[in-house]
Amino acid sequence: MEKELLTIGSGEAEQPFQWSCGKYTSKFLTELRDHARIVGIRCPQCRRVLVPPRNVCGECFVPLDEIVELSGKGTVVTFTVLSFGFVDPDTGKQRPVPYTWAFIKLDGADNTFIHYVEETDLAKLRVGMRVQAVFEEQRRGHLLDIKHFAAIAEQAGR
Ligand SMILES: [Zn+2]
């Protein structure tokens, strides 16, 4: 049976709205934009560092306010390589495939951070691979100021 793949677009719909990122997400995004730097926030009670920063520790329910600078290096915890494109809600255009989407445990952080990884070759990708953030030249205060994470030649746990 021949398959017919249909595509439905959003037509001419335009959704011009803005919302406040809040104190800590604004700090996170301005650090990306102005310093090409990733920051997290430390819980005063459990001492976990969470990235991106947020107002409250989900484990301890206490307010957070200690911003911590991270190196931008991390370890891939899990990943997937996508080979079926979809319209990127950020750009309104289809992201070229294949691309890799990964959970990355940044050095100095206790949770994982989700972002693109440059490598798409399944023979080269692996859980535990070391990666480093690569920043856009022109940054705008957006999560995609981090272009992607790229593999670096070093062992996990450094
Ligand atoms: Zn905590």
Describe the structure.
With 158 residues, the chain is mainly beta. Helix content is 9%, strand content 30%. The protein is globular and about 60 Å long. The chain starts with 21 loop residues before the first helix and ends in a 7-residue tail after the last strand. The structure holds zinc ion. Zinc ion binds next to loops.
Question: Quick recap of the structure?
Answer:
The protein is mainly beta.
Kindly report how far apart the N and C termini lie: 53 Å
Share of residues in helices: under 10%
**Share of β-strand residues:** 25-35%
Shape: globular
Number of strands: 8
Quickly count the helices.
Answer: 1
The average pLDDT score comes to 91
Q: If strands are numbered along the chain, what order do they take across the biggest sheet?
A: 6-5-4-7-8
Structural category: mainly beta
Q: Largest sheet, if any?
A: 5 strands, antiparallel
